[in-house]
Write a structure and sequence with these properties.
3-stranded antiparallel sheet; single chain; alpha+beta
């Protein structure tokens, strides 16, 4: 292999590793900011926590799955829960 090809491969590898590190750090800062507000972050919530969010119009025309759930108290003092109990209580 020529020296130019090796340098290009090293640059590409460094860029890919930098992108991966950036995405990991960004995710950690996001979760830390949520927890800093006193909210709960679940990276793998149960399906039941999102079933209320599949009612129309939220689920129409899309294939959706449960990815993350965030619960806690809003700045106005309203309890926000992924099971939708805050919406039913109001």
């Amino acid at each position: 292999m020529s020296q130019t090809v090796v340098i290009i491969l090293i640059v590409i590898a460094v860029l890919v590793l930098g992108l991966i590190a950036f995405l990991i750090i960004r995710r950690q800062r996001y979760v830390r900011a949520l927890r800093g507000r006193g909210w709960t972050f679940e990276s793998r919530p149960s399906l039941e926590s999102a079933l209320d969010h599949h009612a129309p119009p939220f689920g129409l025309g899309f294939v959706r799955k449960v990815d993350e759930a965030i619960s806690g108290q809003t700045a106005g003092g309203v309890q926000a829960q992924p099971d939708g109990s805050a919406a039913r209580a109001g």
